[in-house]
Amino acid sequence: ASGAARSAAADRNLQLTKPPGALGRLEDLAAWYAGWRNDPRPRITAPQVLIFAGNHGVAAQGVSAFPVAVTAQMVENFRAGGAAINQLAELAGARLDVHALDLDRPTADFTQGAAMTEAEVCAAFATGWTAVDPKTDLLVTGEMGIGNTTSAAAIAGALLGGEGWAGRGTGVDDAGLARKAAAIAQGLAANPDRSGLGVLMALGGREVAAVAGAIAGARARRIPVILDGFICTAAALCLHVEDARALDHCVAGHLSAEGAHDRMLAALGMQPLLSLGLRLGEGSGAALAIQVLRGALACHSGMATFAEAGVSGA
Amino acid sequence: ASGAARSAAADRNLQLTKPPGALGRLEDLAAWYAGWRNDPRPRITAPQVLIFAGNHGVAAQGVSAFPVAVTAQMVENFRAGGAAINQLAELAGARLDVHALDLDRPTADFTQGAAMTEAEVCAAFATGWTAVDPKTDLLVTGEMGIGNTTSAAAIAGALLGGEGWAGRGTGVDDAGLARKAAAIAQGLAANPDRSGLGVLMALGGREVAAVAGAIAGARARRIPVILDGFICTAAALCLHVEDARALDHCVAGHLSAEGAHDRMLAALGMQPLLSLGLRLGEGSGAALAIQVLRGALACHSGMATFAEAGVSGA
Description:
2 copies of one chain form a homodimer. Chain A is 50% helix and 8% strand. By secondary structure, chain A is of the alpha/beta class. In chain A, strands 2-1-3-4-5 form a 5-stranded parallel β-sheet, sandwiched between helices. In chain A, helix 6 runs antiparallel to helix 8 (196-203) and helix 10 packs parallel to helix 11 (261-268). At the A-B interface, helix 3, helix 4 and helix 12 of A face helix 3, helix 4 and helix 12 of B. Chains A, B: Catalyzes the synthesis of alpha-ribazole-5'-phosphate from nicotinate mononucleotide (NAMN) and 5,6-dimethylbenzimidazole (DMB).
């Protein structure tokens, strides 16, 4: 991030017609964004929402409330404009791109070994990296994949340790939750590599790897990212354990209602922008948070200074 | 609120292409809004932000970090488009109206008796009531008035009891905070009436009464309201103690960083939509929350059903 732009933004912030600090977190967000865009007075004009979809071999363990066919059906729904993310992307004036990754070729069941080969995880990561429009000024990553809260929970368990990462996902019952926890335990035992990229390959999925690739690709182009919920944060975690600065260009869009998302965010030292009990994925929570960040920049870049407005200071 | 529209909205919600409950609080917001608008599939197309400004006799007690002249200067800034609320209202596509209430005639200092006469509080209340555009479909109330966190804290103390309602406001120092707490204690002693409207008259201000009037006027026209922070919530509290259903058409837009706003919201049984550390007033937090509510309705009213999209259920 550009220290000069960030510090020029912080200087401007002190001159705006409001008591110092009165816009709270919006002030910090504006300075952070200014730094990444290397512009002391930026606005968000071209946000992009990327949805990656993938299928998971571990779904055969009965870990989801929905059949696997729903992944492809929801991709059609995204393309037809009928999903929640379509409405939220439109509201935010964001471009929406949907990438279905080999849906007819699910990953391998990770209870038996690695979900992906090195070639597969690299291809998915590259799909994510190249899906980022270099002209966008804010990226939201979303995902769809029946079984992918199981994958994300396994990633968290592998990288952060501890128990209780399995949650209800799309609404699995008690028996399904027990199967999910068992599958995660088996997956951790069957895949001992604990490096970030090793875990992404062994316990992730194509859409999870693509999210990680998009996050990394955005950083290379100085494009700030709003992370969505449980699955996107797990993807981000794989980057974070490789390099603690890998997520400096990211902000957590929301706190998901999915089980242990709060513990994942705490491990990343991130405070979510929203906390509204969403647990849908698709990038929905992050897309809703676009307007918070845009509001921060609208205030920062649009407000009059005390001198311009002839307002007395404290 | 219309039970029929609300229940039709709840029925529709169950058919939308997402797991039941996956949009969390957005689903409840959509049903609540549908009931008030008597429309099972509504959208927000004409939001209005109202700012009321007033001056306070109690400012003479040295309770604010800013001089009293700032109230009128900020009104000019609102009219010129330079304040935070201008940027946030524009982002939300909201009409913004500014009402300055007798700025050259501050209320009486409530440490010595009632801040307003019955005629004054009624006139201010009526200004608020009539300022609501009957054609708007969502109201945000905002305020500006040097000294008005002192007024709001006194209202909360009178109606809810307990100590510690005084906060830093626009950024008063320790000595100012002590003067503020003392002025509040004096005000409570000097004004023994504990009815909602009695407290509004004795400890409120013109802009506080206008906010209360706008909230009440919106209810009469079935217009949902997003409450802003500490001062607007105090105004709402005066209505709530008169009739526990008076705020059924309101949602708390955000949790302010101003001292005891959380206790005020708890007393009203309200959960804020946002919690971003704002403490500016002007309706800023509520205006930012317009997009959350709009997002809830965009999803509710715009999404495809399982049948429409050909997506399998759980």
